[in-house]
Amino acid sequence: MSASLLEIKDLCVNVDEKEILHDINLSVNPGEVHVLMGPNGAGKSTLGFAIMGNPRYTITNGSVCFDGEDITEESTDKKANKGIYLSFQNPIEVPGISLGNFIRNALERKTEKKIRLWDFKKKMKSALEVLQMNPEYADRDLNVGFSGGEKKKAEILQMLMLKPKLAILDETDSGLDVDAVKTVSIGIEEYKKEVGGALLIITHSTRILDALDVDKVHVLVDGKIVTTSDKSLIEDINENGFERFL
Amino acid sequence: MAEEKTYVEDVDRSLYDFRNEDKDSFKLDEGLTPEIVKQISEEKNDPEWMKDFRLKALEIYNKMGVPDWGPSIEGLDMDNIVTYVRANTHMSATWDEVPEEIKDTFERLGIPQAERESLAGVGAQYDSELVYHNVKKEVADQGVVYTDLESALWGPHADMIKEHFMKLITPRDHKFAALHGAVWSGGSFVYVPPGVSVEIPLQSYFRLNAPGAGQFEHTLIIVDEGAYLHFIEGCSAPKYNIANLHAGAVELFVGKNATLRYSTIENWSKNMYNLNTKRATVEEGGKVEWISGSFGSHVSYLYPESRLMGRGARAEFTGVTFAGNGQNLDTGCKMLQAAPDTSSFVSTRSISKDGGISTFRSSVVITEAAKNSKSAVSCESLMIDDISQSDTIPAMDIRTADADVGHEAKIGRISDDAVFYLMSRGLSEEDAKALIVSGFADNVSKELPLEYAVEMNNLIRLEMKGSIG
């Protein structure tokens, strides 16, 4: 059966001995756009971290398959190199390496090939343009002193450059002003267009989704997926909130 | 989740740990007597005053005790240390004349490459003797003198050397300064005339080679009024099983309104006792900038001192220390502010791992005369695991109320969130940690010329190998 890119089965996840996610089932096909919505504290980010393998999140039951392979026990870096990307809600500041060098480093690891500096710079330049980022950000230390908006853009920039098969965007739109949301959306569209990858967009607002063809919407409440539907659900939630799912 | 564990006792230093057979080197008897010191003096063709100086220093050496306040140096047995080993070669003006075997050593240390990177001059020391030395023409044309100390003792600047040699660091300072005075050998002499700005850094690369040999090189740099110089000293030593001793001395004289930047990356083998002494004196309006990376060695005592003697003199010290398994690194710096309007700025980072001990010692003395002076000391420590140790011992002696003095100390660990973040972009755990540690040490790497920064980050990566668990 498994044509799906990401196949999550009966997934239970603990944080500090407490179960946060209960029996999650989720299936994303190549190129699909899924949206995971839900009220604060429902466990949306936990799902992203669990898929990516953050050691603070323990998978106690179930499995995660990617591209036909069981990656439940795989290390984070291996998952990344297989083509999963997690855009962080709070990107970490790492002094000592520039954003540009970091991306080049990560790309070379993923492709196991040396990348010519000239080619790399060209690609960086166009990705920076898409996101309306000042080119000097490429030379600045990774996320150090970036504003909230620039950090989020830098996450999308890395996504554009690394070209994952699946990108999980964790609250990428939170804390952004209208213009920044628009820019980030353009970046996401560019990813769809250029890479054709799948998306799992975690959000509790809907602004970022306006321009996207959404295939499925899941609502997560208290660690359970309570409903899955098509794009029309977004409008419903916009008008009525999550109340009827609680 | 599955965790990969690796247990590595020591890093793979094969890149740095290579040695040549010391088949035809000239060696003196082990142990230290006036006869040996005289023999050294004759062999080096010292002027008479230098021979007398050595013998006086030896007397002081024999009277003084070893320091009783820092890491243990019990493993040192001076009677078994061959104090003077010299490769059978003479000064060379061109790279072609350097013997193949020695060339190979330098080749692996990357000296020719560094020179290709258009650095000004190379004075590389092989054992106790300078074997290769070259100052690019344009630097010499500016009137800059960059030579080995031995031949300078007979050159046009002989009087200048006599006037300055071991006046800043005297044999009475401590036992190893006295030892240095008695047996010093090799090293560099640099003189920058008034108003001359040396655009490209001068660099010297020296290393120990023969088993049981100490190295006692002396660096004397005089930067005259209004001049500028960046001097880079790099060390790397191969690894041996018996104790090795390094007791060099660095004396820096910074004239009125002159600036001297002194950068070092030390990378000693893990059996080295590194008891180096470095000191600068700075006149009115002058500035000394120390950039220091301390890697390797079994035990280090290293506290470069800046003496701010003229109004408005400034000193900056930026350092990083990495103590791994079996290492006890006691490092820091001293600031003496003896004139008004002086300022000192200290920023150090220390990393300890696999049971390594890293101690940061600082001393700031502001005399009564140093009105309106400032001092800011900041040290940060990073502990990679639970079995390592990191201490901070700041001392301050402020004799005027009219001074602005600050001290700040921080200690931390590698953040799991940061490791996860980097791994989520495809970096291995080891590489993620090495990257974070390199970032922690970027106070120093940012100040170094690119090729040295790269080497330092390579060293960090080597030291971080096998740290997963």
Give an overview of the whole structure.
The complex is a heterodimer of chains A (246) and B (469). Chain A has helices at 44-52, 76-82, 99-111, 117-130, 148-162, 178-194, 232-240, and strands spanning 6-15, 18-28, 33-37, 57-66, 69-70, 84-87, 94-98, 141-142, 166-170, 198-202, 216-221, 224-229. With 246 residues, chain A is of the alpha/beta class. Chain A has a single domain (6-245), classed as P-loop containing nucleotide triphosphate hydrolases (Rossmann fold). Chain A has a six-stranded mixed beta sheet with strand order 6-9-10-3-11-12, sandwiched between helices. In chain A, a hairpin with a 2-residue loop joins strand 11 and strand 12. The longest helix of chain A has 17 residues, at 178-194. Chain A is globular and about 50 Å long. Chain B has 469 residues and is an alpha/beta fold. Chain B has one domain. Chain B is 23% helix and 35% strand. Chain B has twelve helices and 24 strands. Chain B has helices at 34-43, 48-63, 100-109, 111-116, 137-141, 149-152, 158-164, 175-183, 416-423, 429-440, 442-445, 450-464, and strands at residues 26-27, 85-86, 121-126, 129-135, 145-148, 188-192, 202-207, 218-223, 228-236, 244-246, 249-254, 259-268, 272-275, 277-282, 287-296, 299-302, 305-308, 314-323, 328-337, 343-352, 357-366, 373-383, 389-398, 403-413. In chain B, the strands form three sheets. In chain B, strands 5, 6, 8, 10, 11, 13, 14, 16, 17, 19, 21 and 23 form a twelve-stranded mixed beta sheet that branches. Chain B has a ten-stranded mixed beta sheet with strand order 4-3-7-9-12-15-18-20-22-24. In chain B, helix 1 (34-43) runs antiparallel to helix 2 (48-63) and helix 2 packs antiparallel against helix 8. The longest helix of chain B has 16 residues, at 48-63. Chain B is globular and about 65 Å long. Chain B starts with 25 loop residues before the first strand and ends in a 5-residue tail after the last helix. Mean pLDDT of chain B is 81; it is low at 1-13, 82-93, 111-132, 206-214 and 237-241.
